[in-house]
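Attaching the record inline, Q. Sequence:
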Amino acid sequence: MLANILTLFSGIGTFIIGMKLIASNLDAVAGGKVEELFKKISDNKLAGIGIGVGSAAVLQSSSATTVILVGLVNSGIINLIQATCIIMGANIGTTFTALVISFNYLPIGELFAFLTFIGAMVVMAAKRSKIKTIGYLVGSAGLMFIGLDIIKISASALNEYSAFTNLFSSVNSPFIMLALGLVFTAIIQSSSAITGIVITLAHLGIMPAVGAFYVIMGGNIGSCATAMLASIGGNLNAKRTALINLAFNTIGVIIFLPLTIAFGNKVIGALSGLSISVIIAYFHIAFNLITTVLMIPFIKKLANLSCILIADN
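Structure, as predicted:
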């Protein structure tokens, strides 16, 4: 059992490293264009949300996007209203990762892992540094799926031990699952990584799908920890930006938690024709998309609230 547990955590480590390498190599390929795009943003709310969606999809992280925002707001390059729009979009953009992860459980899942070999061949053959970076990017995407496969294999082996399966099946409290998602995401600083892990556990039947919903909601709040840390030492508007990010995700949980408790299992039953991994990915998308749509009319109020809570000295 110990060997399987060590292998499980090795898979988690491989998956997280793959995700981090994707983010760093995408940023290198983009050549700082994300920050330049932020600087050119207009006061059009939908344009700001769209930029947030694109930047988080490119950086593979809403946390990374928000950290950049904190720096730009701290420098006075963009204002709180603009930052709020981008934050909302970033939370939608980060769900792209969960959707891609869900594809790993289709019959073509092995092809995603094969990207590691393709990336390695590109790196070995390329002469130009930018082509090498693209090779590393492709390879790191494959590495992420290899990590998921390792998690899947080790978790399948651990599924035979009742002590391991009871660890998840015995936790019935939505609030405990929410707290677990919050704490683990704050520690590893990636809600996408948590989503990938719970998709794997739910796919194997180790974690109830509705439990995965609660963990994902907690992960959205936990992902705010990175921006909160980045705002330390910044000016008041930088701190307000981090607070807006926290408020947005918390409001989303307040809206979705009672609905999930009441209707979560019914929704899963209604979508029984889909795989559990896809249902969880769709939930992640719905959570952020619906929260954003509901909050668009209150963008200015959200920015004003942050100014009230973090008042001028």
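The two ends are 57 Å apart (CA to CA). The longest helix spans residues 236-270.

More tomorrow.
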